[in-house]
């Protein structure tokens, strides 16, 4: 919840449920969610690797969006592979990271749990 969400309705709901909202300082994710940041970084690395390969494939296939800008110039953007591609990419990346092991044979999810104590 950001400051823009403050309202009497929210204050009432928080009081009714005996709930308080506390804010973490900026750039504190690795301190308060070390397991998430560790596993997510592995997924991001896999996403970047696979997306870079797809972009290279699109370039080799000469798959440009072919849209003309208002000034008459071409945009130079690659064709968007679509929502289905990105959903499958996300699933494939998570699946790949779930099957990875470190040099001791531990999955990254298990290693993240150990890191968190």
Distance between the termini: 28 Å
How many domain units? 1
Radius of gyration: 22 Å
The SSE order reads HHHHH
Number of strands: 0
- Look at the helices and sheets and give the structural class: mainly alpha
Q: Biggest sheet, in brief?
A: none
Mean pLDDT: 84
Helical fraction: 55-70%
β-strand amount = under 5%
Low-pLDDT segments, ≥5 res: none
Tally of contiguous helical segments:
5
Basic shape: flat
Summarize the topology:
Blueprint: H1 8-16, H2 29-32, H3 34-60, H4 83-99, H5 108-116
Helix pairs in contact: 3-4, 3-5
Give a written overview of the molecule.
The protein is mostly helical and 117 residues long. 56% of the residues lie in helices and 0% in strands. It is built from five helices and no strands. The protein starts with 7 loop residues before the first helix and ends with a helix.
